[in-house]
Write the structure tokens for this entry.
Amino acid sequence: MGLIEEFLTARATRKPSPHTLAAYRRDLHAVAALVAEDDTTPLPLDALSITDLSPRVLRAAFARFAAPRAPASVHRAWSTWNSFFTFLVTDQVVAGNPMPAVGRPRALLPQPKPLRGADTPEVLLAAVARDDGRQRDPWPERDVAVVAVALCAGLRLSELLALRVGSLAGRPGERRIEVAGKGGRPRVVPIEADLDRVVADYLDSRRRRFGSRSVRPDSALLVDRHGEPLRRGGLQYLVESCYRRAGIGDRVPRGARLHALRHTFATRLAEDGASAAEIMRLLGHASLASSQTYIEVTAGQQREAIRASRTNRALAALTPGREATG
């Protein structure tokens, strides 16, 4: 369907990440292929017409699409198709959007996955700051800066990669990181003197390694051991190696990896009393609901800790006919 490519071209002007654009294409083609494979009207995919996409046909296709997939994946595909038809209606290609007639599962907000263990961030930073004789070319200043910026500013992987040396701005006492956020939403994250010092130490070490031209304002903030900008795979590998050196692999939630540092930042904000609105601004969330999950998880953890306390177990034992719990 050529209309799919037209839609993706239009979406590209909004500057979504390559991964987001690939997900749009994947979801559109997957459901379209199921429509084309319908036993009653089998068609080659390139012969599929927009007129073939009636509400009844789309409901059947989405039912088959949903069977092996998680609700979040189905919800994402539904949203993609809804955007596709909204685009077609706007361009007057079709008269109406059939997607409201196609059921979709409720989107469950992903639960935060911070590093486990109250002292884990401190253990990680201390381990990364030490020279490791097993490394061929140790660069603790750079490694500490990567982990510290992720832990103390809560940046996404793509946001870390987009940082420039000039992204750090402001006078002493008013320092900040200017972040090119998700969905083209820029934000500013204040940084304290300790993080400012860590980044300054890293940039000094970088000057010694590669010369003063390596720290021009438009240069990538995070670089590899050859002075080249870190890429996605290199940054992920670096953070994984930091976890291994700190011996905390079992404290990193499965599927979180680098994102666990961002979740730890947000969770600690919530534990220290930050509101959902403050967390939303600092993390660059599009909705307050995403930020609220950190507060709800923290409240749940606090209640579990209280329930498990020895004092509460003693109180439960005093109540006739009730066994201690926890």
Summary: Residues 71-90 form the longest helix (20 residues). The chain has a mean pLDDT of 85. The radius of gyration is 25 Å. The chain has two domains: 2-101, 120-307.
